[in-house]
Amino acid sequence: MTEAKRSGRRSGCPIATTLEIVGDRWTLVILRDMLTGKTRFSQFLDSPEKITTNILTDRLALMEREGLVRKIPYQLRPQRFEYSLTDKGEALFPVVQEMCRWANRFMGDTWRPPESFMARRSA
Fold first, then answer.
1. Predicted confidence band at 8 (pLDDT cuts at 50, 70, 90)?
2. Residue 105 and residue 108: Cα distance in Å, rounded?
3. 33, 51, 62, 120: which has the fewest Cβ within 10 Å?
4. Tens digit of pLDDT for each residue in 56-83?
5. What does each C-alpha distance from 16 to 12, 21, 43, 55 come to in angstroms?
6. Candidates 1.10.10.10, 2.60.120.20, 2.60.120.280, 3.30.420.40; correct CATH number of 3-86?
7. pTM of the entire structure?
């Protein structure tokens, strides 16, 4: 059995493996929101893409399971959490920047990210 199969991945290909984590319609949007300062469930729901609560819950759980985010309670009754990027999640920042550059270059109707976001260096 290959290492990829033992780990539950369908392939040892680094692109396929990465896409298993961030290749759905929503995970990179949540990551973008976290990289721009959002930390709470309600803030993610306010994004212009209008993610549904069940999808958001599912993607945050996936991101936590994969070690991209940590969940920290900020209120006990009712229980509510803040989410922050781990080093592993933060390491995707240059990937998100490059996706912005690519879309701005080839997809003329895309938003221009703030210069502060594009000029920021990865930690």
1. confident
2. 7
3. 120
4. 999 999 999 999 999 999 999 999 999 9
5. 8, 9, 30, 22
6. 1.10.10.10
7. 0.88
Domain boundaries, the chain: 3-86
State percent of the chain over pLDDT 90: 86
- Determine contact, residues 83/70, Cβ cutoff 8 Å: yes
Cα angle, residue 8 at apex, residues 62 and 81 outer, rounded to 5°: 15
Query: Is the CB of residue 32 less than 8 Å from the CB of residue 50?
Result: no
Burial class (CB in 10 A: 0-12, 13-18, 19+), 96: buried
| C-alpha pair distances (Å), 53 with each of 36, 90, 91 | 20, 24, 26
Contacts of 50 (CB under 8 A, 6+ apart): none
